[in-house]
Amino acid sequence: MSLAENTPLSLLNQVFGYESFRDGQQEVIDACLSGKDSLVLMPTGGGKSLCYQIPALLLNHITVVVTPLLSLMKDQVDQLLELDIAAAFINSQQDRQEQIQVLNQVQHGEIKILYVSPERLLQPSFMDHLKFCGVGLFAIDEAHCLSHWGHDFRQDYLRLHCIKPNFPNTPIMALTATADRATRHDISYQLQLQDPYIHVGSFDRPNLRYTIEEKFKPLNQLLTFLDTQSDNCGIVYCSSRARVDDIAAKLQAKGYKAEAYHAGWDTSHRVAVQDKFQRDDIQIVVATIAFGMGINKPNIRFVVHYDLAKTIENYYQETGRAGRDGLPAECLLFFDSADVPRVKRLISDNPNEERAKVELQRFSAMIALADAQTCRRQVLLNYFNEYDNHSCGNCDICLDPPKSFDGTLLAQQALSCVYRSGQQFGVGHVIDILRGSQNLRIKDHGHDKLSTYGLGKDQSQEYWLSIMRQLIHQGLVEQDISQGSRLLLTEKSRPYLKSEKVLHLAVPRIGRTHLYEKPNKVNYDKHLFARLKGLRKAIAQEHDVPPFVVFSDATLVDMANKLPTNPRALLAVSGVGETKLQRYGNAFLTVIEQHLANG
């Protein structure tokens, strides 16, 4: 059957191995094939790439995909080549000869999908080459980079406004995972989209479990979490390069296959780390937010934020790198309210006052998510104007609802301790007084003689830290960050100290390991799955591609569940198309048959 006789659905079935389109994909593809511009908002893992890959197979001229992400170029080209789809990229990591070879293939109509950076596209000679050859579709990935209001604005993207004047009859498809109304309007304006078809998909990722923990001893908390993850792959995000290197070294010392990734490392190191992670040769990447954009690895089973993200957009995009295959994944964030004033001050230092104001609003929304006492997913979805009044049942709030108690006495003890120590000390010192510590600093200041000394010795340091943070959050105490974060009583604390009001606090939630040990919702033969993973790894090494390029974890799970024993049955497995059936089918069927024969 020639491509001309194909339909989007038949290509989805035969080439990509999926039975039906996800929400919105069919409509976006139809709009594109009718020549319309489009703006596509789909969550990470929602299937954005199929929206332009399938039209590319049906259009007469080449599809040009514009992306700033070199890793995504290579990953997607590898996957397309494994499906016998003619795809290529041109970027700075190729030598001149390789680039000329690709350009010749484009000129002779031998390439269906070409990935380029915005800088490459905008070179006059390259633009002229495309005009000569003809372009069927421009797909602009990470389109939020176009907008001043986007969370990852890039100056080079602004010049993409020249596409429409140079190719007035070629549809443009702008794609992103996160964009609010202002950003969406800006994307359309910058690209000069003509009456675009707009699809805003659901931001809900039900397979992701959101957990936000109060930060007590974060390294110990991280290790406790990792103990539940077996050999799963994941990312640990940190706010600074120094912390990335420190955490990576400590994980390595504990026997984890972990590597550090940030902009301070040279290019060769970063490329090597990313490649090893893609190929499942390392388990954990500890990184700044420099890592992750364009990562096409579908089997990331967890994302940990060691520090608070600055915006919900960043948090959503970074957590969205987990569970792209649709299988369950964990998203864990450690939150320390003491970080809030420091980050606010950094944002306020931005000389662009308008930008600083917007960023402060976004940071406040992130704090609200971390502080939420209601379903995390509700808060997240509501932020993106997807209002949902139903609790998700798969976040820490739903699984372990907060409990409140009369904390007036504890508050009085803590507030009195702040007052009696002269309002000159930080949280740690006040807690040491309350717990009756005998360290030298306490004795040197005579604080072992205070009436509040040892009043809270029955509670742990973590317990009191939670109480103190709640008092700060409720405005009874302030932290003076200009003076070593010393604690100062506010006027609001007076009625509680005088027992004129009752104060309700949340019971500190410490050591909730059980949340990570919730049974996997997917039922399949785990032993067979392990054998299939081993076969996949061997084939991937032979073909010099990452394992997920052969088959995703979700496809292996479906195999282990359906237990196909013939080619026709294997074709019914999600993610198995005709090309991969011919290429790998016999090997996987043999492993399944051997497994069944052995009982």
TrEMBL record:
UniProt keyword annotations, A-Z: ATP-binding, DNA damage, DNA recombination, DNA repair, DNA-binding, Helicase, Hydrolase, Isomerase, Metal-binding, Nucleotide-binding, Zinc
Keyword Cell membrane: no
Domain (HRDC) ranges: 522-599
Protein name, as recorded: DNA helicase RecQ
The keyword Ubl conjugation is assigned to this record: no
UniProt-recorded Gene Ontology molecular function terms: DNA helicase activity; hydrolase activity
Record family assignment: Belongs to the helicase family. RecQ subfamily.
Domain Helicase ATP-binding intervals: 29-197
Organism of provenance: Psychrosphaera aquimarina
